[in-house]
Specification:
Elements lengths: L5 E12 L3 E6 L7 E16 L1 E6 L15 E15 L3 E6 L6 E13 L9 E5 L1 E10 L6
Parallel strand pairs: 1-3, 2-4, 3-5, 4-6, 5-7, 6-8, 7-9
Length: 145
């Protein structure tokens, strides 16, 4: 496999409805060394989305992948002004590689609630090996440290 670096991706002013994933970055386990950097996702509305915000460095749809961690370095990722509804209680999933932590991840003004609910307390976020900051409104509460 000879994967190229990916940089400078912007997704703005979109509505995502009834999908499995909203805004996502994914890499395969055991992927060769490369970089994914300078991603911006902003002004996105989610309607009934299973994974509104997700970084998945353990992507393996058929569950028959190599066991070694992804070697893609993800950095400089911004999720800004993302709002709407999730149909999964874990609305923000930042699952980064054990050997290449995601760095400089920014969550800004995130407002997600469960589909068919007005409560904001029944929705969460989950982070693994993700480094960054959260500013402004954070619902669910950010897992970034």
């Amino acid at each position: 496999m000879n994967e190229e670096d990916v940089s400078g991706v912007s997704v703005r002013n979109c509505t995502v409805s009834g999908t499995t994933n909203g805004v996502r970055i994914k890499t395969w386990p055991g992927s060769p060394p490369s970089q994914a950097s300078n991603f911006t996702f902003e002004d996105i509305i989610m309607h009934n989305v299973s994974n509104p915000i997700i970084i998945d460095q353990h992507y393996c749809p058929d569950h028959q992948c190599v066991v070694s961690p992804s070697r893609v370095k993800i950095q400089n990722v911004t999720f800004r002004r993302i709002q709407g509804t999730s149909n999964d209680p874990v609305a923000v999933k930042l699952m980064c590689s054990e050997t290449m932590a995601c760095e400089n991840v920014h969550l800004q003004d995130i407002s997600l609630i469960m589909e068919n609910s007005t409560a904001t307390s029944n929705i969460t976020s989950s982070c693994s090996n993700a480094k960054g900051v959260a500013v402004g409104l954070q619902n669910p509460e950010s897992c970034l440290c």
